[in-house]
Specification:
Blueprint: H1 5-18, H2 31-43, E1 52-55, E2 62-72, E3 79-90, E4 98-101, H3 105-114, H4 121-132, E5 136-147, H5 148-152, E6 161-168, H6 169-173
Antiparallel strand pairs: 1-4, 2-3, 3-5, 5-6
Helix pairs in contact: 1-2, 3-4
Amino acid sequence: MIIDMKKAATAGYLLLEAMGVDAQKEPYKNTPERYARLLVELFGNKPQTIKTFEEDCSNGPITVKGHTVWTFCPHHMLPVQMVVDASYIPRKTEHGTVIVLGLSKLARICTEIIQEGPALQEKVTKRIAERVLPYADLVSVEISGWHLCCAMRGVKSTSTMETSITLNREDAIE
């Protein structure tokens, strides 16, 4: 996602102004620019290169556990913390080897999906699995999300939301 820094800073300024805050005085001075940088940090798309290796090794599950990402709820624009566990069984090649993703790639794929912009946790879960599937025979993604829109307003619950999906190679063909 491309973030227009000038518009994002203006949005931060207008938000402060709407709350009756003088954005020219401390501690609010430069807050609109910091707000714009936050949006770039969360959603500024940094394309990931997915490096793979063909290896003669175990074809058991490979998992990243506890990878934390942050996004915004698309309904309320409040923060959501998601803790991602993503596993895949490497795709077998015709040579009897398997395709293995580079060590950091599962975590990078999770971050790349978040950078697409504010999204429902259910969509993030599915998008991560779909992004890993071309390299796998089976993918499983589980996310535990803490939604500030639920904790701060409305129901005021600090519970977590759990989502999961499992996809196999046949799912990619459909």
